[in-house]
Give the backbone structure.
Amino acid sequence: MGYALRDAPLNDADHKPGLPALRSSGGDGGGGMTENIEPRVRKLENDVAVISHNLAVLTVRSESFATHADVANVRTEMATMRGELTERMTFMGGEFKGEFISLRGEMALMRGELKEEMASLRGELKEDMASLKGELKGDIVSLRGEIHETLQKAINKQTVLLLTIIPATLAAIAAVAAWFK
């Protein structure tokens, strides 16, 4: 019965950094253990202790790992939630569409009311403007008449004055001319 460690070739190519170089004691292989076996065994024992510790940590961690069943449950829950969400969104979309249609109808109604009110205001404005136009025409005609009458009176006064002053001035000029002659 052979041991793999005992039967492995010992040369410098197998040497790992930090480990003593392996040297064969020579001979026929019956007592072929190397001289530095104790440090190697200690190193292997330390490595086994580290591996055991790491395995214990991984074992504890693996208890919280998700199993295939856990993943399947999460997928099922997600599919259920996706379906519920889709259903809610579809329902809300229908509600929003209904509200939108309702608002559109209200806006059309308000637009019609606004058009009617604007037409009514336009009519009132036209009537008011026509009334003001008539009043302004009447006021202008009245003022024109008053101005014409006032001007006529002023012209008449000026005419009377001129007709009075001109003959008097001519008589005065004739008298002065006669006096110098």
